[in-house]
């Protein structure tokens, strides 16, 4: 049986279990729950859930003996300061958007699957070069390998920001469907990694600690999950009282999870009512546009820049004015060390100190070491041995 069929089988079984659970609901349900009778059913659902999560993860991993392949993305090398992927159902206007915001022409047509491979373009934004990947449309079931879905999703997984292009004239569910496809391969949108510490050990059994009383987890659940994943010795510290079973599995599967910001872009607003447009525009992480009427494109580009959280750092040579003609682009959370790495591969080996002017400096200039965090617009002078 293939992985997809296995998944289907488990899903069907889960639906049946859920139904039984619903019919079993009776005045005595609570009492039975306490007695642990009802808990039996609940635990079956949990373990099926976990099995499902594991199978889905396998979809993107090369099949044993297949010699790899399957889950790899398109062969486009990364370039510029960051990578943004345009993900969406067919014919929502991904290629139209790429053509608008970069110098690259990507074929646009009214039929689905016009774009058949990844088309890279470069968005220039105040000194930064952002690689934009126009991708083929994906359909429901992409994660299971339908169409070029897996390749598209793998490409998206390598990006710093996902721009989910949506057709404003289509049902709102399209967004949830796409989110599910991305979730299935371990992409977590607009979320932080769960605040749970897990350290596998060689001996000593399991040590499970909660910082505050958990709402959705207990020691036994964690114990069972760890055992499922064949981790018999481990230290666990749950720092978030709202953490769920899924969160805990994400922590175990950390190497296969990717936390990526997502900007939802509704295109074709020329075809919807003003009231509906206003409703869409109020959604979080959302912008609306019409490529056709050239409306909102600037907002989309500004939001891409904001969501990438890149910083522009300017350098200053001793005795000269700062060079504002060219910015160094670093990621949010970067330090002077990252700035050095941007300037030259070996610069930090000769580093003595830096002088920093701007928002990150307590006083101007502040003398700092390599681990000083920089801020947008800082001016930096590096002094070497
Ligand atoms: N009404 C309207 N049509 C648009 C808009 N933007 C794009 N289109 C049309 O939508 C159709 C699909 O556009 P594409 O850019 O090819 O869409 P795509 O998402 O790249 O499609 P695939 O590559 O097939 O997945 C074309 O006929 C475009 O002219 C818009 O803002 N409004
Ligand atoms: K199209
Ligand atoms: Mg296209």
3D structure, described in words:
The chain has helices at 3-24, 29-35, 37-59, 94-101, 149-157, 173-184, 219-228, 245-252, 274-281, 297-308, 336-343; strands at 82-87, 119-125, 128-134, 161-167, 187-189, 196-200, 206-210, 234-238, 258-267, 286-288, 310-315, 323-331, 351-357, 366-368, 379-384. It is α/β, with parallel strands linked by helices and 385 residues long. It has four domains: 3-59; 82-191 and 257-308, P-loop containing nucleotide triphosphate hydrolases (Rossmann fold), CATH 3.40.50.300; 196-256; 311-384, Beta-grasp domain (Ubiquitin-like (UB roll), Roll). Strands 1, 2, 3, 4, 5, 9 and 10 form a seven-stranded mixed sheet that branches. It has a five-stranded mixed sheet with strand order 12-11-15-13-14. It has a three-stranded mixed sheet with strand order 6-8-7, covered by helices on one side. Residues 21-45 and 60-71 have low confidence and may be disordered. Bound molecules: guanosine-5'-triphosphate, potassium ion and magnesium ion (MG). Guanosine-5'-triphosphate binds next to helix 4.
Ordered list of secondary-structure elements with their pairings:
Elements: H1 3-24, H2 29-35, H3 37-59, E1 82-87, H4 94-101, E2 119-125, E3 128-134, H5 149-157, E4 161-167, H6 173-184, E5 187-189, E6 196-200, E7 206-210, H7 219-228, E8 234-238, H8 245-252, E9 258-267, H9 274-281, E10 286-288, H10 297-308, E11 310-315, E12 323-331, H11 336-343, E13 351-357, E14 366-368, E15 379-384
Helix pairs in contact: 1-3, 7-8
The structure holds guanosine-5'-triphosphate, potassium ion and magnesium ion (MG).
Potassium ion binds next to loops.
Protein name: GTP-binding protein
GO molecular function, one term: GTPase activity
Organism: Drechslerella dactyloides (Nematode-trapping fungus)
């Amino acid at each position: 049986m293939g992985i997809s069929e296995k998944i289907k089988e488990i899903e069907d079984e889960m639906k049946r279990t859920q139904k039984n659970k619903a019919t079993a609901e009776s005045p005595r349900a609570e009492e039975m729950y306490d007695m642990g009778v009802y808990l039996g059913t609940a635990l079956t659902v949990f373990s099926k859930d976990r099995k499902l999560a594991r199978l889905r993860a396998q979809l993107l991993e090369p099949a044993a003996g297949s010699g790899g392949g399957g889950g790899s993305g398109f062969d486009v090398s990364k370039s510029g300061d960051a990578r943004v992927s345009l993900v969406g159902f067919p014919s929502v206007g991904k290629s139209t958007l790429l053509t608008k915001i970069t110098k690259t022409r990507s074929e646009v047509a009214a039929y689905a699957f016009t774009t058949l491979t990844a088309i890279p373009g470069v968005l220039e934004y105040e000194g930064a070069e952002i690689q934009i990947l126009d991708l083929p449309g994906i359909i429901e079931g992409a994660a299971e390998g339908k169409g070029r879905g897996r390749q598209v999703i793998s490409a998206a997984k390598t990006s710093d920001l996902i721009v989910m292009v949506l057709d404003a004239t289509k049902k709102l569910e399209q967004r949830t469907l796409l989110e599910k496809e991305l979730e299935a391969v371990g992409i977590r949108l607009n979320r932080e990694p769960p605040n749970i510490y897990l350290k596998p050990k060689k001996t000593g059994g399991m040590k499970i600690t909660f910082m505050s009383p958990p709402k959705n987890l207990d020691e036994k659940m964690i114990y069972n999950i760890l055992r499922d994943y064949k981790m018999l010795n481990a230290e666990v510290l749950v720092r978030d009282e709202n953490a769920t079973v899924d969160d805990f599995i994400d922590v175990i599967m950390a190497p296969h999870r990717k936390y990526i910001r997502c900007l939802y872009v509704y295109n074709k607003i020329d075809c919807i009512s003003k009231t509906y447009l206003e409703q869409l525009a109020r959604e979080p992480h959302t912008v609306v546009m019409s490529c056709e009427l050239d409306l909102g494109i600037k907002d989309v580009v500004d939001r891409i820049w904001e969501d990438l959280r890149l910083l522009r750092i300017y350098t200053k040579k001793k005795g000269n004015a700062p060079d504002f003609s060219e910015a160094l682009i670093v990621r949010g959370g970067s330090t002077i060390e990252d700035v050095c790495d941007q300037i030259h591969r070996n610069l930090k080996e000769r580093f003595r100190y830096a002088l920093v002017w701007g928002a990150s400096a307590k006083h101007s200039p502040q003398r700092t070491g390599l681990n000083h965090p920089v801020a947008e617009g800082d001016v930096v002078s590096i002094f070497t041995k």
